[in-house]
Amino acid sequence: MANLSVNLCGIQLKNPVIAASGTFGFGREYNELYDIGTIGGVSTKGLTLEPRLGNPTPRIAESRGVILNAVGLQNPGVEHFISYDLDWLKSTGTAVIANVAGKTLDDYKNICAKLDGLVDMVELNISCPNVRSGGMAFGIKPETVEEVTRYAKSGLKNTPLMVKLSPNVESIATNALAAQKGGADCVSLINTLTGMAIDIERRKPIIANNTGGVSGAGVKPIAVRMVYEVAQAVEIPVVGMGGITCAEDAIEFLMAGATAVQVGTANFTDPYAMPKIVKGLNDWCDKHGVESVSELTGALQLNQR
Amino acid sequence: MRDYEAVIVENKQIADNIFSVTFRLSETASVRCGQFGNIAVGGTHLLRRPIAICKVDGNQVTFCYQVKGEGTQKLKTMEAGTRVNVLMPLGNGFFVDEKETKVALVGGGVGIFPLISVLREYLGRKEISAYIGFRNKGAVCGLEEFEKADKFVAVTDDGSYGEKMNSVQAFAEDLKKGNRPDVVLSCGPTLMLRALKKVVEEENIPCYVSLEERMGCGIGACLVCVCNLTNGEHARVCKDGPVFNANEVVL
Fold first, then answer.
1. What is the ipTM of this complex?
2. What is the pLDDT of residues B7-16, one digit of tens each?
């Protein structure tokens, strides 16, 4: 048995496998299939100060090897989460990461203040491609990334802050540095890539929002490259995601420099994807004489050119 | 709810572009009529296909599907013996109250298949009238099941089989003749459900409809497949539905 636990900004995770925001709700549904206390952490559905109804349907489409979604941050609001879901989610034993979004800088500060000390970590969503106001607007330019991170951080005294980065930018490494400068304790990447899928019979985009965020197995090489670039640039830990489907995929991200990983779309294809990845990580480590999974972080050796 | 590793027993065409696939499960599943399964077609298809459960016979489960996109195109080519993961049973399903003895089933197109599961569950225990509609003669299927109902009418949009009308018109005509059910259960295209809702609202007959929406997880976590409720809220078609009280949902 390899040691799968990892330390992420002072939070001890049982293993480096975290459910990615938006694919896992608040964990209740997947807990009907398996004990979600066996996975390292859960990043909640994106929370806002007020409840949001989200976008019209259809909200999802498929293309070979990937999916597109535009849910538009439907959520019951942060207060509802704190009252109805938080205690239950904590009781499962998984690390609770509250994913939050806002329209204004003050929104980010206020929502962080409400969650401060209640959750294990806050993940800042400044890269949702599916909401017109806010969200992604903060995630594009390094100046606004730094500013929104600083505002969010000012609402947090006892809880570490993870900033989720958008790949739809000029330089994700520059934005990661900006988040670090703004006070982020770690960064996570990649959020979805903006895309479009067209129903040629109707001559219209399949998704009601016209564009959606692309995720799933097909985006993995892009995500691995970006995780590598960011890990090279920053001092703070990196959480990698984008198309992780099996333990071997997760190991690629760890080697590229990630301390932990998030799994999203794979949960739809196989609802047991995450426990299988946890088991697969252990098996791989045992087979390769790796005593602790944390040894794999940044173990990548580039080819000499 | 479980993710069954199912084995295809039979996968055959039953009408124009309509197929019926039967899986053998490792054990008997407890299924309520109107529930569905999320079928993994594999390959480059990351999303499963949510399809209504049509028949359950011991450890064999039958789904009927229309070939529409690449996923169902692939499903159609899968031969007997192929192993497929099926997450099921999902959703709430249809439920008929004890006080309701006369049940009307109103189905259109592929919407007739979940109604077959209702028919099989309540056959002999309720007085069932079925009104089913198809585009044309080539699309007609499932008659051998609906024939078991106490009364059944099959119609087509173009009159190539049965009378030229849709299933809501067939139901409304019978209603005018005094054949009034205690409850109506329905599945079909949204336009059809909307027309039905108008008829039952005027007559004040309880009505439950099964909805279809593009889904992500299929278990209520991802909030992809929502529908609008009349109270302004959203409901998850996969978890809170797919069956809704017609009064409570915006069609």
1. 0.94
2. 999 999 999 9
